């Protein structure tokens, strides 16, 4: 009888995800022993501990009322203060709001982490969100903030990072360059097919039978749940029509939407790339090699959307959606799309990196070129060159440009981009920066007068910085998508270089992300 009661209660607990995380511990303990008694009593012990912990959580749940939100913090969170300690607040909050928050954690008497549970008064800095998925989707988290205030917060973030982390003499930081487009500015989006749709409170309240399949975005912190999207304000037409048309087709055909937990299903992922030339690339990932259904899907897209200039598919049976190690198969059109920038043409393949805001990328590169002050006789090194966009963009104003990138495929794209534009004064090399830039390399390619560097979010490794210091170019133009790691690198470069110009650039409206361009000149 006790066993039956325990089994019933155990089945109830299995429906609670937090308990499932606890249960995995007991499975790991017992799977090698295959001892039922050990498994049974370990699970019973976990049940008791779980109940006591949940009871203790509810008893000690701390709610703070009427907290004033003072400012933004990193990663888009907000800041309040409680008893002299900083409170990092997640959720729909803006500086100037007065809110109630639930304390989620407390770190060594230094700061709290909390989430908004109620709002009493709203800040004057607020705007009306334009997207119905705001607050659920996880993207465009600053829709509720006026754009002019977003820009001020981003400028302040750059200023804070450079002053607090770099701690080097700085010039007056120039005004942030706003984005002309604040919606429909992205040229690439990825959507996921899933048989585990995330239902909003409104959908649940409507009742009735709900479609469990979805094509949309991952819910934050829930890798297995997908929010179905009807209209996204990030990518221009025909992006929404293609996504919605493909979803309708897959449902009508009875295709199995992907099950991420079990790596099962047929339709898996959709990648859409648009270009400022009007080109459109569509890539569909399938999780099963069912060629008949693949051909039917591709034929539907080709016939329904003649705007597609590059139609490709990937058969990906792995446990993750990453496709950079997979083969993209061309079904119709060209194997690439083309972007234009100041008369230059850049080919973008299915795996190519290209700045996701094409219009603002042009403005960013113009600032980098302005900072470089090229006269036509300089040797320029473009580090982390990617597909050679910056290298080719500045080549007309330089004597020679050398691009270095650790991804060999990107270097091949860079060479192609030079060739199709008739640019003959560029050379590109693949390899680890700190290993490639040795003395033999410098003798072969000439020591640089100007270095332009655009590293990933992690910034430059210290050995790369040390290499830069040894090369001693006259100028370094540092383009960064993470001003915190950029500030760390500026502190290292201070040994031989002074910061003479700083200009933030907004590439991603309604997010906390900001690009920053810094000019360093040899002391």
Taking strands numbered 1, 2, ... along the chain, how are they ordered across the largest sheet? Answer: 9-8-7-10-11-12-13
Helix count equals 14
State the CATH class of the largest domain: Alpha Beta
Q: How many separate domains make up the residues?
A: 3
Helix content: 25-40%
CATH superfamily of the largest domain: Vaccinia Virus protein VP39
Radius of gyration from CA coordinates: 27 Å
Overall 3D geometry? globular
Mean pLDDT: 89
End-to-end separation: 83 Å
What is the annotated CATH architecture of the largest domain?
A: 3-Layer(aba) Sandwich
Return the CATH topology of the largest domain: Rossmann fold
- Secondary-structure-based class equals alpha/beta
The total strand number stands at 22
User: What portion of residues belong to β-strands?
Assistant: 25-35%
Uncertain runs with pLDDT below 50, 5 residues or more? 1-9, 11-18, 28-34, 52-59
Largest sheet report:
7 strands, mixed
Family: Belongs to the class I-like SAM-binding methyltransferase superfamily. RNA M5U methyltransferase family.
Keywords: Methyltransferase, S-adenosyl-L-methionine, Transferase
Protein name: RNA methyltransferase, TrmA family
Active site: 481
